[in-house]
Amino acid sequence: MLFHEVLVIGGGLAGLRAAIEIAKMGQEVAIISKIHPMRSHSGEAQGGINASLANVEKSKDDSKEKHWYDTVKGSDFLADQDASEILTASAPEAIFEMEHWGCPFSRTPEGKIAQRPFGGAGFPRTCYATDKTGLYLLQTVWEQNIKHNVKVYEEWVVLGLATEDGKCCGVILMDLRSGELVAMGANAVIFATGGIGRIYANTTNAITNTGFAISIPYWVGVPLKDMEFIQFHPTSLARTHILMTEGCRGEGGYLRNKDGERFMSKYVSEKVMELGPRDIVARSIQTEINEGRGFPDGTVHLDLTHLGAKKIMERLPGIRDICMNFIGIDPIYEPIPITPGTHYIMGGIDTDKNGQTPMEGFFAAGECACVSTHGANRLGGNSLLETVVFGWRAGEKAAESVKGKDKKAKTKALEDALKREQDNIQNFKKLSGKENPYKIKDELAEMMVKSFGLFRKEEDMKTGLDEIMKLKERFKNIRGAFGGKVFNLDLLSFYEIKANLDVAEVLAISAIARKETRGSHYRTDFNKRDDQNWLKHTIATYSPEGPQLSYKPVTITKFQPEERKY
Amino acid sequence: MVEFRIFRFDPEKNKEPEFKPYQFEPFKGMTILEGLYHILENMDSSLAFRSSCREAVCGSCAMHINGVYRLACKTQIQILKSPITIRPLSHLPIIKDLVVDLNPFFDRFREIKPYLIPKENPPEKEYLQSVEDREKIDDWLDCILCGACYGSCPVCAQDPKYLGPHALLKALRFVDDSRDGATRERVAFVTQNSGIFRCHTIFNCREVCPKDLDPTKAIAKLKWKSVFKKF
Amino acid sequence: MNQKQSFSSAYGWFIQRITGILLAFFLIVHINVLHFGEKFFIDFNMVTQRLEGSFLWAIFYIIFIPVVLFHGLNGIWGLVEDYRPSQGAQKTVKVLLWILGIVGTFYGILAITPFL
Ligand SMILES: Cc1cc2nc3c(=O)[nH]c(=O)nc-3n(C[C@H](O)[C@H](O)[C@H](O)COP(=O)(O)OP(=O)(O)OC[C@H]3O[C@@H](n4cnc5c(N)ncnc54)[C@H](O)[C@@H]3O)c2cc1C
Ligand code: FES
């Protein structure tokens, strides 16, 4: 039976960073990723990564504490302040490390790492490498993994966790290339499986970011935290929902409704206009669309035509490329149709500030984890930071935890888990209903946008939840999965759709329960923040009857909750 | 109506590959990748292909589409003539349908030690790098390792040991980096038998690169550096 | 990365470029005087007359011969390398080409020396 002391699941920034740490500490580690690490979603990040380096003139008064405060304020005070403190205090060190490993950051005239302003931050503190920060960071950490000779199982999918006496002792994998199921023992497992954007139809996330990975630990009893908090980005390209960077508006782009009106003036002051905070702009756009002032395809226009060819070619060439390649529109001559898009999940697998989950031997880091540094709303540039800081910490902790332990797989537990997955697969193949599973996936995703989108309301959400339960019923009546072994995408989709349904249910129940407006969770029927009753984390635990909710206090060390005003 | 003629090969079932036709109605702006998903979800769930980002930054979906190596996610159906013939990347072992084994491709990449070997011990803060020095590597950074150049290069086809445009481009990225201290070893390494001098300046790599990089130029630069050792 | 890689192929490549440029010049002169002079069809007398006329012609050919031989034979070597022959075959071909080159140069120059 295969065995590694530590297994890292996920080859994105968080997973790769964790693996480097473990390898450096001399523990034996392997990475498992369902796609090649360089294909991970982290490579899509554009804007940058936050650290209070005070490298540019305007940020010379910046400090770790101010970064900490901005993060907590941005979170609408739901962040655990000890966790945010770690995040912001380790930021400079984490960035310098990336630089020492070769990350090609853009530079200031003095040769230091360049920084730019980002929403919700008091100073320009977002370190960037042109508009491809994520890609370059991902390249850098992957290169370090090559240097440390870390074993990577590419295109191996985790299907389940093996547990013994409530401890994690390995994973069940499918090797996509051969289609074989394999049990792999480990003394510690770190999940770094990224976001779940694909449960929404309008997501900016990669196709691989489904609800599957996060539901694997959920199914065996690891709780999910704060799942109701989903961030929406104001401008994503119509239909494809590819991110249109905030830079478009920064360079002077206008937002217009179907009457050609610059509607932002109705929602914010003339001074701010299109450059309001992310959540407000997103909600304003959605209001226009909901009230029938959008275009027939449910969009509004991001208008760059007045900027002129020169400026667009110079400053936004990537955006122009995307528009031409993906919707056949040249923004020099035509406005870009956009809608808000589901962007990021603040919640995730419940962990403490070391990445340790309630289950022994099981860690999580990156977007899939909820250390709760972002609380109810994440600041742009903080999540890349989270992946490296908490990837590093989780790696360190996991490596320490396996020191001196037996290097032997727990055969019995692994075999049981393997059997369970084999049965699951057999069942998927044996199904003989009529439904097309992909229809269910699409319907769920559409429904999530409608009922659990930017604006939430008790009745909408209840209808949404009903819909989820109906879809779950229908899922029992789907056609059988394709029976081949090699690279069976169909079978994988079955798992993913099943998981999407469960994760959506957790999200729905958590959201219905939280009767207040906080950060990204905006309720029209309870439109005030309610610190008295709701300054607490939602914890959802699996039970066969559906998720069971409980609550956990927020750690407040320094900053007392105050009204969040910009 | 559009017709996809897709290269199909399932090692469990087929002895020989075949092309299978699929007809459907595309919507405006539909990409090849969306077409493939349409087929997978509604017509033939046994189809295999790779994808992830659907926005041309992850490098999963390079394939041979109507005679040219392109990213499926970045290619609009409407710009191509139907029937659209889709084949996997060339001269790499086929796993299934459009999925090829990229190990040879990544193995070549690993050989060039694709990581920074610093000149000096790291300072407390960042290494200082002037804007001009940063600019020197700007052209060599954006590679997403999709394999289009490798698939289109006749030298790679004939010589599996040839380092290939992707690896050589990466080598220059470190050679040109003011922070890297292993320049001499790097240049010596790419000067070996299967290195830069196998390149016949055919320009295919530059022509197909979906990120508009120029590996041919990178290789030419390495050739000059190898002669003058002026690093 | 093996640090002991030699740079010989780099020089080979570089000299190939230089000889290429030289050839462009030499060949133009050479073909011009041979075929577009007084008569289209040349004979032995014409050649010897020209060579006896000025010792510069002799020097011209003494340079021309090694340049053309290097360029041609190194070109063949490039083709051979593309097909990745075994180590042994590579060595044999290399030695053969060198012998061909040296003997050719020696013999060619020998033929010119009387006119110096
Ligand atoms: C368009 C876009 C732009 C962004 N820009 C910024 C930005 O400018 N600044 C910022 O700070 N943040 C940004 N973010 C957020 C940030 O990119 C992500 O939060 C971060 O990259 C997540 O990294 P990760 O390592 O946790 O996960 P990922 O990079 O998503 O990696 C997940 C890994 O898990 C693997 N995996 C998943 N499921 C399984 C399974 N079942 N079995 C095996 N392996 C599995 C995958 O193969 C993958 O390798 C952006 C996000 C988006 C969508
Ligand atoms: S899917 Fe990422 S490059 Fe095409």
Quick overview of this protein structure:
With 231 residues, chain B is of the alpha+beta class.
Structural class of chain A: alpha/beta
Number of helices of chain B: 9
Can you list the strand order of the major beta sheet of chain B? 2-1-5-3-4
Task: Encode the helix/strand succession of chain B as letters.
Answer: EEHEEEEEHHHHHHHH
| Sequence stretches where pLDDT stays below 50 over 5 or more residues of chain B | none
Question: What is the fold-level CATH name, i.e. the topology of the largest domain in chain B?
Answer: Fumarate Reductase Iron-sulfur Protein, Chain B, domain 2
What is the β-strand count of chain B? 7
Q: Can you list the ligands bound to this structure? A: flavin-adenine dinucleotide, FE2/S2 (inorganic) cluster
Distance between the termini of chain B: 56 Å
Find the biggest chain interface: A-B, 57 and 63 residues
Could you name the CATH topology of the largest domain in chain A?
Answer: FAD/NAD(P)-binding domain
Number of domains of chain B: 2
Assembly level:
heterotrimer
Could you list some keywords that capture this structure?
heterotrimer, A: 566 residues, FAD/NAD(P)-binding domain, Flavocytochrome C3, Chain A, domain 1, Methane Monooxygenase Hydroxylase, Chain G, domain 1, 3 domains, 7-stranded mixed beta sheet, 17% strand, C: 116 residues, mainly alpha, 3 helical TM bundles of succinate and fumarate reductases, 0% strand, elongated, disordered N terminus, binds flavin-adenine dinucleotide, binds FE2/S2 (inorganic) cluster
Question: How would you describe the overall organization of this protein?
Answer:
Chain A contains 15 helices and 19 strands. With 566 residues, chain A is of the alpha/beta class. By secondary structure, chain B is of the alpha+beta class. Chain B has nine helices and seven strands. Chain B has helices spanning 32-43, 103-111, 131-138, 148-152, 154-158, 164-175, 183-190, 204-208, 215-228; strands spanning 2-8, 18-24, 62-65, 68-71, 84-87, 94-96, 99-100. Chain B is elongated. The mean pLDDT of chain B is 93. With 116 residues, chain C is an all-alpha fold. Chain C has a single domain (3-115), classed as 3 helical TM bundles of succinate and fumarate reductases. In chain C, helix 2 crosses helix 3 (55-82) and helix 3 (55-82) runs antiparallel to helix 4 (87-112). Chains B and C meet through helix 7 and helix 9 of B and helix 1 and helix 3 of C.
